[in-house]
Specification:
This protein has helices at 2-23, 35-50, 63-75, 79-104, 107-118, 121-126, 133-152, 161-174, 181-193, 198-221, 233-240, 259-274, 280-297, 299-313, 325-328, 342-355, 363-378, 391-410, 414-431, 441-453, 457-470, 475-487, 491-504, 509-521, 525-538, 543-555, 559-572, 577-589, 593-606, 611-620. It is globular and about 90 Å long. It has 621 residues and is mainly α. Helix 13 (280-297) crosses helix 14 (299-313). It folds into 2 domains: 2-227 and 316-431, no CATH class; 441-620, Serine Threonine Protein Phosphatase 5, Tetratricopeptide repeat (Alpha Horseshoe). The relative contact order is 0.08.
Length: 621
């Protein structure tokens, strides 16, 4: 009977995940077109083309793109197969929740936790996104379960396989989400001191280090820079700890919101402030130092921010920077079913911690696993998907609460049920603080951006208009609507949207750049120059604004100044065929023919179909 119940739970978990995959085709974000999913998708394709040997210092942990590239290699780049495999891994997570609950408390608690995990909406929703947490959740669950089994091993035991396996899985989990690092060091010390297993501790930490070592070696020998795992740690630390930080993702001034812009802009800002070129490790240290200065100068503001992040971590709302769970319900009818969320799981987890404070086994490991991971996230910023790795501990503890509630109800212990009810109410109060807004205007803009990226601005426009219905003062929505109208040749409508975007957000470099282009096409060169200069004052790393300012200078006959701007644009974005060609034209006008030809050839290397360069070379050669 026990096996039947478990198999029923696992079958339900698989059915739910496959049904969700089917209906998620209706979601604009089904394909990895934007933000982090697009970044990892493109990274995986790059690995397929060139392998690791062409990669420099890693910006992001590499295990997930390696997983993607392996799947793409055998499926002709099918991201749908990736989603199917991630659904299967989700079932593995459910099974591991069962085993963990069994180890922590009882078979019934494990089954209750697994049943909750099988139908937990945010879990099966995020498992279908191309994000590292999709494989990180089962790896974290496996690492946690093996850590518990290792803790159950008799003190002084000489068994070797279990600490090695736990170390390997902990290392693999760290290569999807580094929040487990604190626990790894704690657990090694715990094994050595509490369990009197020096050999076990050594085997665990050696296996853990052996998994991470190739990443460090790659960064040192291929990237020519000493970076332990990834070079984005310092920048992310600053995002979470600065005077304007809100506890969730908010791009610092002068930097973009997607990963490619962050890589470029974080480096450009750091180098400008440092007054010299910087290696990736130095860029990371620069941002970390800025965050540390904020913490040192404003300790009370930092502590207040830390408390806010703690509340946000346990907020019932799924605070997302990719596809939003609540937003997706508008496109996916399967998600509109009443699936349990953290609004229920959170209070049950807190109640389970209290109820099982004496009878739960491995309490030290459970508290360290959960507490150290939460602390690691709070050092940076909070995100819905960052909560997924710790769910392998949350579900079983919630299962303990469910089992106890059922038992007390059967015994008609209504006094205890009343106490549990008060505990659930207190937990609900914590998870329902709602410290961030929920208007989804950003999500509507992102949905429109998907179609804009696909070259279909007409389909993008309704999404941008919906964003403005939700939030009329959204500068991003006005800007995006202007871009869509520009691509459709509706220049007057575009100009009005850019003008409104500048009014609402005078600090938007992109809005100033785009309205500058409008003035340029109208022949109002002075106005165009003013806006391009303002765009660069706000964001000196705006490669497009440098290029456009160069065009204005060229039209005004200021060729040397134009060359300077085109060169800056090319330095910031070496993959721009337009900047190459524009700089080539300037050199050609100054009779620097060979340099011009070299730049046009470079433009064609970047884009073999770049017509302007083809035409120029045909004329010259």
């Amino acid at each position: 009977m026990k096996k039947f119940r478990l198999w029923a739970v696992l079958a339900a978990a698989l059915a739910v995940r496959l049904a969700h995959l089917y209906f998620s085709r209706l979601d604009p974000f089904f394909e990895p077109a934007l933000l982090d999913p697009a970044y990892y998708h493109e990274w995986a394709l790059r690995l397929l083309r060139s392998g690791l040997s062409r990669e420099g210092v890693f910006y992001g942990l590499p295990l997930y793109p390696l997983f993607l590239s392996a799947v793409y290699a055998v499926s002709s780049g099918s991201f749908v197969l990736v989603k199917v495999l991630q659904a299967a891994l989700g079932v593995v997570t459910v099974f591991l929740v069962y085993k963990t609950g069994e180890e922590l408390h009882s078979e019934r608690a494990g089954l209750a936790g697994a049943a909750f995990a099988a139908v937990y909406g945010p879990l099966f929703f995020h498992e279908q996104l191309l994000i590292p947490e999709a494989i990180g959740a089962p790896l974290y669950a496996a690492a946690f379960y093996l850590s518990l089994r290792l803790d159950a091993q008799p003190a002084g035991s000489g068994a070797r396989a279990r600490p090695v396996a736990a170390g390997v899985l902990t290392g693999l989990a760290a290569l999807t989400k580094a929040g487990i690092l604190f626990f790894a060091w704690f657990f090694a010390g715990y094994l050595a001191l509490r369990k009197r297993s020096g050999r076990g501790a050594m085997l665990f930490i050696l296996a853990f280090g052996a998994v991470l070592a190739p990443v460090t070696a790659h960064n040192v020998f291929r990237g020519k820079d000493f970076v332990w795992l990834t070079s984005h740690g310092g920048f992310n630390f600053y995002i979470g700890n600065n005077p304007s930080a809100e506890g969730v993702f908010k791009a610092p001034e002068g930097t973009g919101s997607n990963v490619e812009y962050q890589i470029r802009d974080a480096k450009a800002v750091a180098e400008r402030e440092a007054g010299r070129g910087l290696k990736p490790s130095e860029v990371s240290r620069h941002w970390r130092a800025k965050a540390n200065r904020f913490i040192a100068d404003q300790p009370f503001a930092f502590l207040k921010l830390l408390a806010r992040k703690f509340a946000l971590f346990f907020d019932a709302r799924e605070i997302s920077d990719v596809d939003d769970y609540q937003f997706a319900k508008g496109f996916n009818p399967f998600l509109r079913l009443p699936w349990p969320t953290f609004a229920l799981l959170g209070p049950l987890f807190f109640l389970g911690l209290w109820i099982g404070r004496r009878e739960t086994r491995h309490r030290a490991v459970l508290v360290a696993w959960t507490g150290l991971y939460v602390f690691a996230v709070l050092l940076f910023f909070v995100n819905a998907r960052y909560r997924l790795p710790v769910l392998s501990a949350v579900f079983p503890v919630a299962g303990i609460a469910l089992v106890r509630i059922v038992d007390r109800a059967r015994d008609r212990r209504w006094d205890r049920i009343a106490v549990y009810g008060l505990g659930l109410i207190a937990g609900a109060a914590l998870v329902q603080m709602q410290l961030v807004g929920t208007d989804h205007s950003r999500d509507w803009v992102n949905a429109g951006d998907v179609f804009l990226k696909k070259g279909d601005p007409e389909r993008a426009i309704p999404f941008y208009k919906k964003a403005l219905e939700v939030r009329p003062d959204s500068a991003k929505a006005h800007l995006a609507l202007g871009i869509a109208n520009t691509r459709l040749g509706r220049h007057e409508e575009a100009f009005e949207q850019y003008r409104r975007a500048v009014e609402l957000d005078p600090g938007s470099s992109e809005a100033h750049n785009n309205i500058g282009l409008c003035y340029d096409t109208r022949g109002r060169i002075d106005e165009a120059e003013r806006h391009f200069l303002r765009a660069l004052e706000i964001h000196p790393g705006n490669a497009q604004a440098h290029n456009n300012l160069g065009m204005v200078y060229a039209k005004s006959g200021r060729l040397e100044e134009a060359i300077g701007e085109f060169q800056k644009s090319l330095d910031l974005n070496p993959a721009s065929p337009s900047a190459c060609s524009n700089l080539a034209i300037m050199y050609y006008k100054l009779d620097r023919r060979e340099e011009a030809i070299a730049l046009w050839r470079r433009a064609l290397e970047i884009d073999p179909n770049f017509g302007e360069a083809k035409k120029a070379l045909r004329m010259l050669e």
